Amino acid sequence: MRTPVAGGAHGGDRGAESCGVGLAWLVHGLGARRDVEVVTVELDEQVQRTARSAPWPPWVRFQSGDGADVAGRLGQFDLIFADAPGGKIVKLGRTVAALRRGGLPVVDDMDLTRHDDEQLRSALAAVRHRLLGNADLVCAELGFSSGVIVAVKHRP
User: Which DSSP category does 118 fall into?
Assistant: First the structure.
């Protein structure tokens, strides 16, 4: 599996996300697997230094920068957890483009009732509209936690 938190091993899976709880959640969930690469992307150097100081499996890789920009340069992913403005609120198209066919974008914090900031609610409503209206994705809205949209990319 290749996941950003964003990344990939030959013949394995790959994923992408930013340094934080999401990274720990994904790494814990992957358990003892060795056929994965998780690439975590973070703009804030101090946050990344702190995250790097923890003991991580050898298949976790750290990248600096904007998640949407970095994921696009690293190739295609099986899963992208878009948990930062870059790749979710802005450059969502780059996030979707960085997914392999069958890849899963995961977007959290989509329950608009949890946000007081009108601009943020408006931006997240636009993200929801773009995801649900994307002909390349089959989406499911999950009404738990902070509100999650999970999709599968069914066309290249």
Answer: H
C-alpha distances in Å from residue 124, one per residue of 29, 129, 144: 27, 9, 16
Q: Which domain holds residue 45?
A: 2-153
Residues 9 and 23: their CA atoms lie apart, in Å, by 18
Question: Of the candidates 147, 145, 113, 114, which has an alpha carbon nearest to the alpha carbon of residue 131?
Answer: 147
Q: How do residues 56-72 score in pLDDT, each as one tens digit?
A: 999 999 988 888 788 77
Spatial CA neighbour of 94 closest among 52, 59, 65, 119 = 65
What is the number of domains present in the chain? 1
pLDDT in tens, 94-150: 999 999 999 999 999 999 999 999 999 999 999 999 999 999 999 999 998 889 999
Provide the CATH number for the domain around residue 93: 3.40.50.150
Count the neighbouring beta carbons within 10 Å of the beta carbon of residue 58.
Answer: 7
Q: Name the band, by pLDDT with cuts 50, 70 and 90, for residue 6.
A: very low
The structure tokens listed for 118 are: 């009108």
| Tally of CA atoms within 13 A in the half-sphere of 34 that contains its CB | 0
